[in-house]
Amino acid sequence: MTKPIRVLVVDDSTLVRKILSEILSQEPDIEVVGTAQDPFVARDRIKELNPDVLTLDVEMPRMDGLTFLQNLMRLRPMPVVMVSSLTERGAEVTLRALELGAVDFVRKPGRDLAHALEAYGAELVEKVRMAAAVRVRPLTARSSPPQASAVGSVLPKPKAPSGWASNRVLAIGASTGGTEAIKEVLLGLPPDAPGVVIGQHIPPGFSAAFAERMNRLTGLVVKEAAEGDRVMPGHVYIAPGDRHLLLVRDGGRYSCRLTQGELVNRHRPSVDVLFRSVAQSAGKNACVALLTGMGADGAQGLKELRDLGVYTIAQDEATSVVWGMPGEAVKRGAAVEVVPIGGVADALLRGSVAKRML
């Protein structure tokens, strides 16, 4: 029999520790081996219990979650799932936690905590299972779910676009580990790069903070996409949480369209939806990359793009936090090129001027 995933729950709230422990303990393949109310107790419990995964509160007494996480990832790297409040401060701190090495995060609702956290049980369980399989590197080495719908429920199957458009466009899709992967790609793009549209699996309330963070850190103008935004060179448009982002043709140029739509591959925003809209509106004027992420969202869209002659890129396994989405794309023959994350920006720029698919 496969050994259960051993989890240590760290949170200053007795109620949250109790609820998280109960949710996780219901799963036969997960064992909650202990809890801790602050980082100092957690440090001792880690030494004593040697857990496989940590769930970690962002704000705790005696030592904040970020300081503890930074020390942990430097001295004893292990998979960490953050439990974060849905506030502007909570979103910013969570993004910083992902930068420091946390694998993923779940939201901590502010009201009716017991009922709300129980509703997020499937998400929590899924992310703990995924975290247990992640390869965690030391910090110094770092550069029940909704029913799935098919992408056709939002957009029909693409055909080569008709008409004329002068501008090139780049598209990026990602999920688990994607916030840091996207940052590395954007840092590698020049200020006059083609306009970029991004689908990153992220909850409402976090996408705006992510866009603002990228805007501060990169030489590009980065924003959360809004309905009707004109896609311009040197600008990046990130899909809002809980909205599909579509690229649409607007005369000879491109613009952003947002739609609620159905969940696709259990996600909204969905990378498959974004990629299909790019296929419909831009075709060979696009260059597209699929980065780290759990599941298969984006693999079908990347294959449809390659079939149209678009230059397509997948992140390699060695640099992916989870080689689910790009790995599935490679398996389907969807990627013209498979590159480490440090080479994706250059590949996008090369692909955006390629005359034909290699």
In summary, what is this structure?
Keywords: Chemotaxis, Cytoplasm, Hydrolase, Phosphoprotein. It is built from 12 helices and 14 strands.
Give a structural overview.
This protein is an alpha/beta fold. It has two domains: 5-141, Rossmann fold, CATH 3.40.50; 157-352, Methylesterase CheB, C-terminal domain (Rossmann fold, 3-Layer(aba) Sandwich). 34% of the residues lie in helices and 21% in strands. The chain has twelve helices and 14 strands. The chain has a seven-stranded parallel β-sheet, sandwiched between helices. The chain has a five-stranded parallel β-sheet with strand order 2-1-3-4-5, sandwiched between helices. Strand 13, helix 11 (325-331) and strand 14 form a beta-alpha-beta unit. Helix 3 (65-75) runs parallel beside helix 4 (88-100). 52% of the residues are buried. Mean pLDDT is 88; it is low at 141-147.
